[in-house]
Amino acid sequence: MSTRNINGPAVAVIRELMGMRKGEFARRVEIDPGYLTKIEAGSRQPSPAVMKRIAFALGVSIEVVTYPVNAEAAA
């Protein structure tokens, strides 16, 4: 079985290329700006629902901002 983790640095790069500030993006995704900072730094993994909202707000598919992780290896 495989799951997906978010690639926080990719989220940050795409957000910055869009010219969007962290606070504005966090509001669009409906998360706390501090939580977004941790996601972009790679120290937090959001729920699948938040991952989907991030991808939608960036205008990309979920595969662009996530990577597959083997569930057995992650355990």
Automatic annotation (TrEMBL):
Domain HTH cro/C1-type: 11-65
Pfam annotation, one family: HTH_3
UniProt xrefs under InterPro entries: Cro/C1-type_HTH, Lambda_DNA-bd_dom_sf
Domain of life: Bacteria
GO molecular function: DNA binding
Descriptive protein name: Transcriptional regulator with XRE-family HTH domain
Source organism of the structure: Leucobacter aridicollis
